[in-house]
Write a structure and sequence with these properties.
By secondary structure, the protein is mainly alpha-helical. It contains 8 helices and 2 strands.
Length: 166
């Protein structure tokens, strides 16, 4: 099976790339970003921040407008990764990310699984669905058998005054 490239998710974006956006993110940047999230605007912003020199807010907006025509900032995912200490943000203008030790552990655990899903020899099902078996009949409510009045109870009720029984 041919190896699927992460950059193929952004074909239209890469064809429309301009000098204002800086250098294009490499396959390595995109594959690393995809380990932490699915392909899309958020992962593109993370991959751009992994480049030398990082990315500015204006570049993120311009790149996101190439994806769907909406120039919206895509910082939620990136900020979450920084807060989780998976990446560290370098000082300077814009966002420049480097992989933190905790992030490297995450890549070691989940990177191979992500690579198998993308490049594996066998198709990987998204989630195995168990076959549903026949349902077992639910037991109905068990009710106590109706009590039959005993001769003693009948005599007690008959001896009570009519006012109390009514």
């Amino acid at each position: 099976m041919a190896q699927v490239k992460h950059i193929s998710y952004y074909t239209n974006v890469m064809q429309s790339w301009s000098k204002q956006l800086g250098s294009k993110p490499t396959e390595a940047h995109l594959s690393l970003a995809h380990v932490f999230g699915r392909p899309g605007k958020q992962s593109l912003a993370v991959a751009m921040a992994l480049r030398d020199g990082g990315v500015t807010g204006a570049q993120i907006k311009l790149a996101s407008s190439l994806v769907d025509g909406k120039a919206t900032p895509q910082l939620n995912h990136m900020r979450d990764l920084i807060a989780a200490k998976l990446f560290t943000r370098e000082a300077g203008e814009g966002y420049c990310l480097t992989l933190a030790p905790k992030g490297q552990q995450f890549v070691d655990l989940h990177g191979a699984k992500a690579a198998e899903k993308v490049t594996g020899g066998k198709p990987v099902a998204k989630g195995a669905v168990k076959a549903k078996g026949k349902r077992k009949a639910k037991a109905g409510k068990v009710t106590a058998p109706a009590e039959t009045p005993t001769p003693e109870a009948a005599t007690v009720t008959e001896s009570q005054p009519a006012e109390l029984t009514a």
